[in-house]
From TrEMBL:
Transmembrane segments: 6-27, 39-63, 75-94, 106-125
InterPro entries according to UniProt: ECF_S_folate_fam, ECF_trnsprt_substrate-spec
Coiled-coil region(s): none
Origin superkingdom: Bacteria
UniProt protein name: ECF transporter S component (Folate family)
Protein source organism: Aminicella lysinilytica
Gene3D superfamilies: 1.10.1760.20
């Protein structure tokens, strides 16, 4: 990778991390302190499509840490950073170097929302808040029922209608981060 390509990659990742922080911290809704509905998944999915699972996992983890440092909402808990990292990795494993279709997006959304958001995040909240795991599940299941279709629709929509039209993003997704 040339120096120019590394710079483009670094700037793109920094922009996507900043966008993730904005979408997660400012354009999301907290529900009863145990559920957050937001759009922070969009930049992470775009990084996963363009750069793969490891960059997406690292970017989401870094976004979580920076978001917590800059705009704290309670104490930092590394479990949520682990969830963020695993979410980026899952998106990357399913979406990287693949055609971004509704079915593939639905698969990614179901796996991420059910395993990461419903079970793992609920477990972290159980540890943090001392509430019963099963007591928190009903509200979190409702949240996940909304989240799956939103993710399944927005990921291919944003990629195919916005990012795919940007030459740098299209080239990065093709494995060639050249500036067109």
């Amino acid at each position: 990778m040339s120096k120019n390509n590394k710079t483009v990659t670094l700037v793109t990742l920094a922009f996507m991390i900043a966008l993730e922080i904005i979408l997660t911290r400012f354009l999301s809704v907290d529900v009863a302190g145990i559920a957050r509905i937001g759009f922070g998944f969009i930049p992470v999915a775009m990084v996963a499509i363009m750069y793969g699972p490891w960059f997406a996992g690292g970017a989401y983890a870094l976004g979580d840490i920076l978001g917590m440092l800059i705009f704290p909402k309670g104490a930092y808990f590394p479990g949520f950073t682990l969830t963020a990292c695993l979410t980026g990795i899952i998106f990357g494993l399913i979406l990287y170097k693949k055609e971004i279709t509704w079915k593939r997006s639905l698969l990614a959304a179901v796996i991420v929302v059910v395993t990461m958001n419903l079970f793992l995040d609920t477990y972290w909240l159980h540890i943090l808040m001392g509430q019963g795991f099963l007591a928190m599940l009903p509200l979190r299941v409702v949240k996940c029922c909304f989240e799956i279709p939103v993710q399944a629709i927005l990921i291919p929509l944003v990629w195919n209608k916005v990012f795919k039209r940007i030459p740098m993003a299209r080239n990065a997704a093709a494995g060639n981060a050249k500036v067109a």
